[in-house]
Design goal:
6-stranded antiparallel sheet, binds iron/sulfur cluster
Length: 488
């Protein structure tokens, strides 16, 4: 078993990406394509990964491991155990189950044996009524193997009376609330499903005579697959070597894609909703510069996620862009078990200030978000230590004041800086010369909604900024979470 990846100095101060899913049908050694796809989706989950494959002679095979894809699924020895023309895989950061202490039994894909054959399933998202479903299923005799919410889908499928696996999956997913993009497989079919609101992404690609499903288009690129289209919100595709069959098994609803995928989660080289993520982030920077201009000498990104927005800010404002902070790309693997002294260096292990550039300058720092604020404070100190005259923060998302319950790990509400402080209080807390966030309308404009957010019928999920949850977080309400009141 490989060791877990080392912790990241920002781990407690970023929203963590959910999971990445990938599947391929109709090509020889499909699992090797899946391994490559998962490698391109590694930013969506670094704790663990798993691959299931099916071969007509050798049946289903699976491998689930802790750690990075490159450390586990590159050896010939492992890949030889995953033969066949059909395969799916999953990279995970736990958003339910035992956070940060993944057990191997929680690592997906999950597998179920049904009377009509086996099926494996990989899920990205979060089921908001999982506790109630789990209680009901356990009372009716289901025996759960993991602490993951996704396992409910397999048990609901086992209880369905439908005759085919895709029909059983439809039955199961109609009982599930929340956010789900699912990639699944039977002995002969690759299946992809998106929840009716389409909160999490899923795209279809074509590779040779075969097909691929992926969380993001960047993973299609790595295997040389051609991007075909997004799976529609509420759509199920059932794919075999003859082609793609599409169905819409859920009650139709207006889509609410996660707007934070545009800001931070997705890779900048992916395409979301027909838009380049990189260009959207550059637009966010331009909007920020229009909304919150400030006189300064340099615009610097907080690497790497703040980079496109910083470029956009610079282009719009005319203030020169500069790499004032340099990221050490190789730090992660050097200190697998850091000593106390090294741990205390925190952010300095990962980032260093370009002193010669910063000294005596008024610096605008562009970051993607402020979660707890701990990293922002440290970065500000580093910039001041390097002799900057002024530090101005510009943030490429609105204040993150509410937790996400749709497959993104967020701290409890009290731990979010914006949940307890006004913008001015946050500025004082971070002790910077100015702090400005993009407005919600500005963010909507940057993703292509020229008139901003439609307050009566928002075009995206933006619950972590607005507190307006498109799906009631039933399990969390049961645990005492309080929704936004009319007065807030
Ligand atoms: S709450 Fe925020 S992070 Fe979660 S799905 Fe909605 S927009 Fe995305």
């Amino acid at each position: 078993m490989n060791s877990m990846p080392p912790s990241h100095p920002f781990d407690d101060d970023k929203l963590r990406e959910e999971c990445g899913i990938f599947g391929v049908v109709g090509v020889q050694d499909a699992s090797t394509f899946v391994a490559l796809g998962l490698h391109a989706l590694q930013h969506r989950g670094q704790e663990a990964g798993g691959i299931v494959s099916h071969d007509p002679q050798l049946g289903f095979n699976q491998a689930r491991r802790f750690g990075y894809v490159r450390d586990n699924f590159t050896s010939q020895k492992i890949m030889e155990t995953l033969p066949g023309p059909l395969s799916i895989g999953h990279v995970r950061y736990s958003t339910s189950g035992s956070k940060g202490q993944t057990a191997i039994r929680d690592v997906q894909p999950f597998f179920g044996e049904f009377s009509m054959g086996g099926a494996a399933i990989a899920h990205n998202g979060n089921i908001t009524n999982a506790n109630a479903l789990r209680r009901e299923l356990i009372e009716r005799g289901s025996i759960f193997q993991s602490s993951s919410d996704s396992e409910c889908i397999i048990h609901l499928m086992a209880r369905s009376l439908q005759r085919t696996i895709p029909e059983r999956m439809e039955d199961a997913l109609r009982r599930v609330e929340g956010a789900f993009s699912v990639v699944a497989m039977t002995r002969t079919k690759l299946i992809g499903v998106r929840d009716p609101l389409g909160v999490r992404p899923l795209v279809l690609g074509k590779i040779g005579d075969g097909w691929a499903l992926s969380s993001e288009t960047c993973a299609l690129d790595i295997i040389g697959a051609e991007y075909v289209r997004e799976i529609e919100p509420g759509e199920m595709v059932v794919i075999n070597e003859e082609g793609v069959e599409s169905r819409f098994p859920f009650r139709s609803r207006k889509s609410r894609f996660c707007i934070f995928e545009h800001v931070y989660f997705s890779r900048p080289d992916s395409i979301l909703g027909g838009r380049s993520v990189y260009e959207t982030r550059e637009n966010i920077g331009r909007e920020l510069a229009k909304e919150s201009p400030v006189e300064a000498d340099l615009v610097c990104p907080v690497p790497d996620s703040g980079t496109p927005a910083a470029i956009g800010f610079s282009l719009e404002s005319g203030i020169p862009y500069a790499m004032g902070i340099i990221r050490n790309q190789y730090m992660g693997r050097t200190f697998i078990e850091p000593t106390e002294q090294i741990r205390n260096m925190g952010v300095r292990l990962k980032l260093n200030v370009n002193r010669a550039l910063i000294k005596d300058k008024r610096v605008i720092l562009v970051d993607d978000s402020v979660v707890r604020g701990t990293t922002s404070r440290k970065i500000k100190e580093m910039i001041l230590d390097a002799g900057a005259k002024e530090v101005h923060f510009r943030i490429a998302s609105p204040p993150t004041a509410w937790p996400c319950f749709y497959g993104v790990d967020t701290p409890q509400r009290e731990k979010l800086l914006a949940a307890t402080m006004s913008e001015e209080e946050m500025r004082a807390h971070l002790a910077v010369d100015s702090l400005k966030f993009i407005s919600l309308d500005g963010l909507y404009r940057a993703v292509g909604e020229a008139n901003g957010r439609n307050a009566g019928n928002p075009q995206y999920c933006d619950a972590c900024f607005s507190g307006e949850y498109p799906v009631e977080p039933a399990d969390m309400l049961e645990q005492g979470f309080r929704l936004k009141t009319a007065a807030e």
